[in-house]
Design a protein that fits this description.
It is a single chain. The chain is mainly alpha-helical. It has one domain. The chain is 69% helix and 0% strand. The protein has 3 helices and no strands.
Length: 105
């Protein structure tokens, strides 16, 4: 199995999470956020009793920073788990009975 670069996947997920939340910020800033939130909650069989707060630059910056950080951490952890488990699977498939570290390339 191919090795995944944890930093690269972390950056990709950070950008994707920030972009997704950036879209939400555009909806809130244009006044469409409440309608979208109500619709999404109803799709999930929930009563839409939440209220979208007014848009603020500080809140927007915090949301983007937290979303990007969470995406980065998720990417690094996911790639690290992938690399660890794929090395273990390859090791087991080779018939080895103990885990050993493969030499660096």
């Amino acid at each position: 199995m191919a090795r995944v670069n944890p930093n690269r996947l972390g950056i990709v997920l950070a950008v994707m999470m920030a972009a997704w939340h950036g879209l939400w910020l555009v909806l809130v800033a244009t006044g469409v956020g409440q309608t979208v939130a109500d619709f999404v909650l109803q799709l999930h069989f929930m009563e839409p009793d939440v209220m979208v707060q007014p848009f603020t630059i500080g809140g927007a910056a915090a949301l983007l920073a937290v979303a990007a950080a969470a995406g980065y951490v998720a990417g690094v952890v996911g790639a690290s788990l992938w690399n660890c488990l794929s090395a273990w699977c390859v090791h087991e498939a080779a018939g080895a009975t103990t885990m050993t570290r493969s030499p660096a390339k």
